[in-house]
Predict the structure.
Amino acid sequence: AHCKFGTGSVVNRAEILKMAIEAIGVEFTVENLKEDFPEKDPLKMFVDVTSEDVWFYPYLYFATANGVIEGIKLPDGSYKAAMSDGLTFSQAAKIIHLILQYESAQ
């Protein structure tokens, strides 16, 4: 079963990631992430992230840089972020848990 929020809408990976990151109040910039973690740029890691202009790009970059999101391996060996996909309760719990681990390590 997919997680639902508010009006019964299915919550996707991007939305839960944004909520979790904003809940801990961490401040970061894409520029700093690019400087510190150039190999974790979602544009380089995921075949389904093709632009920095998508609203979730900063949150996804933060998550990849900190080991929260690794992606879904495809048969050809590439990875997708699947940020618009709905997610299960256990997937949402894992993202929240990993974000809270980041917060407690700071």
Observations:
- DSSP finds five helices and four strands in the chain.
- The CA atoms of residues 64 and 70 lie 6 Å apart.
- Helices lie at 13-24, 30-36, 42-45, 57-65, 89-105.
